[in-house]
């Protein structure tokens, strides 16, 4: 059975969240477009290299989960909205939101943009 774009995007979204939690720069290198940009909760805008450098550092959160994942596909473009739940360094429950934009080029979905908020 062939995977649909929706199934692929669900899997890529899970990979993205897992890569954040585990500082998996290698996987990020596979799924981020060369012109990827990320808006951080502190208002900074990172390019791909800066994001990879940031992602290489161990995170202080644990139990990161994405819930209420909504995938909106527009041809070869998809927008993923979700709520995140996690524990901060002190063990307090926190939540945030993210919006990721994915673009399908030559049959491959790559993340081109991310916007992250934290509560």
List keywords for this structure.
single chain; 119 residues; alpha+beta; Nuclear Transport Factor 2, Chain: A; 6-stranded mixed sheet; globular; NTF2-like_dom_sf
What does this structure look like?
This protein has 119 residues and is an alpha+beta fold. It has one domain (5-118): Roll (Nuclear Transport Factor 2, Chain: A). 28% of the residues lie in helices and 50% in strands. It contains 3 helices and 6 strands. Strands 2-1-6-5-4-3 form a 6-stranded mixed sheet. A hairpin with a 5-residue loop joins β1 (32-39) and β2 (45-47). The termini are far apart. The mean pLDDT is 96. Residues 10-110 form the DUF4440 domain. This is DUF4440 domain-containing protein. Pfam families: DUF4440. It comes from SAR86 cluster bacterium.
Tell me briefly what this model is:
InterPro entries: DUF4440, NTF2-like_dom_sf. The chain is an alpha+beta fold and 119 residues long.
Number of helices: 3
Look up the CATH topology.
Answer: Nuclear Transport Factor 2, Chain: A
Average pLDDT figure: 96
Give the fraction of residues assigned to helices.
25-40%
CATH class: Alpha Beta
Tell me about the largest β-sheet.
Answer: 6 strands, mixed
> What structural class should be given to the helix and strand makeup?
alpha+beta
Domain DUF4440: 10-110
Protein name: DUF4440 domain-containing protein
InterPro entries: DUF4440, NTF2-like_dom_sf
Outline the secondary-structure elements.
Elements: H1 5-22, H2 25-31, E1 32-39, E2 45-47, H3 48-55, E3 62-74, E4 77-87, E5 93-105, E6 108-118
Parallel strand pairs: 1-6
Antiparallel strand pairs: 1-2, 3-4, 4-5, 5-6
Helix pairs in contact: 1-2
């Amino acid at each position: 059975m062939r995977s649909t774009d929706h199934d692929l995007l669900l899997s890529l979204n899970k990979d993205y969240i897992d890569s954040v939690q585990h500082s998996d720069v290698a996987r990020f290198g596979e799924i981020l477009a060369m012109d990827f940009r990320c808006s951080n909760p502190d208002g900074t805008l990172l390019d791909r290299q800066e994001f990879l450098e940031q992602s290489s550092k161990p995170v202080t959160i644990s139990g990161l989960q994405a819930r209420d994942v909504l995938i909106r596909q527009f041809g070869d473009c998809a927008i993923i909205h979700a709520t995140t739940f996690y524990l901060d360094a002190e063990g307090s429950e926190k939540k945030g939101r993210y919006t990721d934009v994915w673009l399908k080029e030559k049959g491959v979905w790559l993340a081109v943009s991310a916007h992250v908020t934290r509560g």
